[in-house]
Description:
The complex is a heterodimer of chains A (310) and B (77). Chain A contains no helices and 19 strands. Chain A has 310 residues and is mostly beta strands. Chain A is elongated. Chain B is α+β, with helices and mostly antiparallel strands. Chain B has two helices and six strands. The radius of gyration of chain B is 16 Å and the shape is elongated. The interface between A and B is medium-sized, with 32 and 18 residues.
Amino acid sequence: xxxxxxxxxxxxxxxxxxxxxxQFTYTGxxxxxxxxxxxxxxxxxxxxxxxxxSPDRMMxxxxxxxxxxxxxxxxxxxxxxxxxxxxxxxFTGTFFVQVEKDVPYDIVIGAGGAGATSNGSTxxxxxxxxxxxxxxxxxxxxxxxxxxAGGNNGGSTPDPxxxxxxxxxxxxxxxxxxxxxxxxxEADAEDYxxxxxxxxxxxxxxxxxxxxxxxxxxxAGGNxxxxxxNGRPGAFITGRGGNGGLGVFSSTARxxxxxxxxxYxxxxxxxxxxYTSSVTAGEAVASGGAGGQGIVIIRNHRVKQATxxx
Amino acid sequence: xxxxxxxxxxxxxxxxxAPYNTSDFPDAxxxxxxxxxxxxxxxxxxxxxxxAEILSPAESEFSRVKTQGILKRIFRR
Lengths: 310, 77
């Protein structure tokens, strides 16, 4: 159930004012961002234990993103090549929390799901992220040519009997979880957990087809600019965003891999399929990309309308 | 680095942990570059799916080469 409300300002202010960065310890990897005149954010990048040292208690907003699902590999159906669907982006949620001093809070960061890389395998689901008694699930790995479900659904690919481009992964929660996947649910914030793009299918000599783009400003699918090769990753920052699916060429047919979904929690791109009668079947399909890891972000409780997840 | 959370011999979650605080999660098992996923099994120090051990890409390739007898021919020389 979603709850929309106007947030009151600050909760219990610290001695220096409610926008002061709290003193805390964290056993994993984190980074603190100060937003002048607005407040602060803490981004938890790996799992660990968070303990508030000062003030005695504070009200925070928490934004959770699950790991992205893996893209599927291209596969064969009765000697017909079929491209793999893109992995679903992780689910997201925004929560209103009171944290207490000296209480250890476990923060769990969901990992991205593995892409399908061997015959008969499928994309794996992303891991769940957890914090402050809340859990958001990972995106679903793509199983066949249909994109995985998630916060943002992965892009599908042409069905076994159709040539063509892979479809783009979703953005901003649609199609997907049905609510925005933007940071803290705010309309002007950056989008997370883009769906992975679907791989392309090119069957027959000289056919060309581009992979779908990753959602949430994710990586472009393999297209004419890289000779219908691999889909690009969701971001250039290691660990952030889904990985692109691999493209493939088969004699004169070329098909691009799906692009990785954008930002933390992005789904992996789907692998492509390019098939002509002059090559062996095993050379006609390519691997899907792994999903991107999730993230947990907290910030000072703010005077702004936000959409909270129950 | 990715770790599998194991309950009753089954992977129930995949999470990211830095090398220096793995003690925070005693149920976590490192997966390296093996394509382990939620629902896979863990026993005897190995990961399994549908009765087959899950191998890393390098292990899979080594296994393939070994099966094809290529290594035997190399050693024979």
